[in-house]
Amino acid sequence: MIRPRGPCVEEVMNALLDHARSAMPTGAPPARRGTVVTHLMEDEAVPDGDELAGLIRKVAQDRDRQAYARLYSYFAPRVNAFLRRSGLPANTAQEVAQEAMLNVWRKASYFDPARAGASTWIFTIARNQRIDHLRRARVASSAEGEVPVEDEPAPSGETLLLAAEREASVRAALKALSDEQALVVRLAFFGDKAHSEIARELGLPLGTVKSRVRLALGRLRALLEAQS
Amino acid sequence: MTIHHHATDETLMRYAAGDLDAGPARVVAVHLAGCPACSARLAQFEAVGGAVLEQMEPVPMAPDAFAAALGIIEAEEAGRAAPRKPAAARSSSGRAPSLLPGGIPIPAPLADCEFGPWRWIGIGVRASAVRLPEDPEARLTLLRVGPGRKLPEHGHVGTEFTQVLVGSFSDGYGRYLPGDLSEMGHEIEHQPIVDPEGECICLAALEGGMRLTGFFGRLIQPFIKL
């Protein structure tokens, strides 16, 4: 699916291909199919939501390394980008992204497509990993090593829309926002640091940026409610 | 339980983005645990997060990152065959089971917290400091305020999040019953009064900087290492 301002499919594919190639020493023999996966495959296309969900299921049920390789090549660079944008230094972003992707493997059996789409589920894993990292950094004396991050509050199933419906309505609402508002919503997800950076870049007071965030969220809410 | 006062979109968006401080995040978690409407709205914001993630311009990982991940996974898979040692039971020694009167349980999202003793803060007002394992510096407080107690008007630097657990209070913006969440922005001066029917217990956290001269600041001052 092509979305406003998102990279076009071709760009994404090129990036993936570049990445896959860079993961492989020049002149290395191609990956042996169906055997041990040692690096990313070269011929991947951009998967859609159902396909991504299917890959997570394969990881959960069959511990499928090929499926994991595809998930990794799609999500790791995006999680990395997200973490960078949220203010983590390059090395840290990559470490946290790596840990998030390991959690995708470890927690795959908890993925429930009726509750969240694949990207949404992985987003929450990356988010929790970032929270975990920031708190670890603060709690320097953490001898336990494992800092708990609260689990998602259990949603009462009957009141939640089916995930697929929700994903579709959220995407439609994001598309219906003006370019500026869609940008503001995206930036809002990168956190406070991003707010102040935007404020500086645009030469706007921080308060103005925040009130634009509020306006954009109000519009998003109106769009979501109009659909339901 | 009908909930009349909900989390704002901004708060849910920030919760979804992982951008709320630990204290306010716990208050919101307690609200979410009892509020299907806010849980559904949170799910929408998390879906926005999923869409944002998909739209990120990929930043390549190091060339050997995937091989490293596989190495860790294979080692862990090999270890899975071996019997796992049981996870150590989490200590709950600091937890006071009688903290909430009437056998009302501590809300599940606070299960891993430690609660300080009730301390006298002012006439008819007691407070218990809640210590979060993930952030010992987080300012999260249980407040227990007597019936009809009028609290001085106050403002604060950041947003104040208050979730009612027991009883009720009212301010210029309405009446807050168990399950309700009050979010008071820094621009707001409000004067909460506990309703006369009984005492009110709520969970409160203040975001951002502090103004210690304010009511809430004075309340939590005893718990802060200055």
UniProtKB/TrEMBL annotation, chain B:
It comes from Ancylobacter mangrovi. This is ChrR family anti-sigma-E factor. Residues 116-204 form the ChrR-like cupin domain. It comes from the Bacteria. Residues 10-38 form the Putative zinc-finger domain.
